[in-house]
Amino acid sequence: MGYLPNILITGTPGTGKTTTSEMAAEATGLTHVNVGDLVKAKSLHEGLDTEYDSYILDEDKLIDEMEDMMRPGGKIVDFHTCEIFPERWFDLVIVLRTDNGVLYPRLESRGYNAKKINENMECEIMQVVLEEARESYEEQIVIELESNSIDQMEENVSRIKAWMENWIANSSSKK
Ligand code: DAT
User: Fold this and answer.
1) 174 confidence band (pLDDT: 50, 70, 90)
2) How would DSSP label each residue in 105-133?
3) Is the CB of residue 10 below 6 angstroms from any atom belonging to ligand 1?
């Protein structure tokens, strides 16, 4: 079997990374890597930030832990930040975007505290993750996709699948 691509799905919390990644993994046969879960399961952090109720990432430990799993390709990596990963890992970087009026209730229904909701809303409004992605990866591999509705999510999954099939066809026709 030939080499498979690695895809990063990033975006502000609540934009649909995990749901989209699960659906895309099922549609493509690639393996979903939920980085937040990995950080918790393997304690790749330096404890909890009580103010924001989130883990303080140990980036070196995380990258070491992921290096071997990324090497053979075939992963859909799901995380809310993207600048910490080596650029060489990814063939496609998807940044999910959600409108304010849709994102706010999603964050509220997660039971986030007001500070965490506000921080995430500001992150989305300021396009923090999109800018990070554009600074960290080649412009042509960064794709921004809207994730407001189930229809859009399904369309995004179809696009990822089509991209992957095209990528595989192109990589096997080279040399
Ligand atoms: P993330 O992994 O980015 O934090 P998620 O996949 O956990 O986001 O989704 C958060 C919630 O919002 C979850 O209840 C599913 C819902 N959701 C996400 N994307 C959606 C979309 N495009 N349309 C409708 N609901 C969506």
Assistant:
1) low
2) HHHHTTT--HHHHHHHHHHHHTTHHHHHH
3) no
